[in-house]
Specification:
Distance between the termini: 49 Å
Radius of gyration: 22 Å
Bound molecules: zinc ion
Mean pLDDT: 87
Helix content: 10-25%
Structural class: alpha+beta
Shape: flat
């Protein structure tokens, strides 16, 4: 099959756009973890006060969308809000707390310089 140069360049551009869109969908901030028992890290929690921290703790429901498990935020403002605020609560779908804690990790690179990396 032969295609023109213009067609080739057009397809190449589309391919590159698809590839970069795909990359953009990945997490922009990586997850913090301590892999081995006894591992240590120097971190700073990225909050000014407890209220800011609490705002990153929220109830979620696990649901199936198009055959895939997804976690969605409960629509109730807090536990004192009426169940009727959230159709998933009304249907009896269990709620589980999720924490997405923002922190900054400090590591030392090979040159001995301190590197600062945002993590969740
Ligand atoms: Zn709910």
């Amino acid at each position: 099959m032969y295609i023109s140069r213009e067609e080739f360049l057009k397809r190449q551009k589309e391919r590159q756009e698809r590839a970069s869109n795909f990359q953009n969908q990945g997490p922009r901030v990586s997850y913090f973890s301590l892999k081995e028992d006894g591992d240590e890290a120097v971190v700073r929690f990225a909050y000014n006060n407890q209220e800011e921290l609490y705002s990153d703790i929220f109830p979620t429901h696990q649901v199936t969308i198009d055959g895939k498990f997804r976690r969605v935020k409960c629509l109730r403002e807090n536990y004192n809000s009426p169940l009727s605020d959230c159709p998933l609560c009304v249907s009896g779908t269990p709620v589980s707390e999720r924490f997405y804690i923002k922190l900054i990790e400090y590591t030392r690179n090979e040159a001995g310089e301190i590197e600062i990396t945002p993590k969740v």
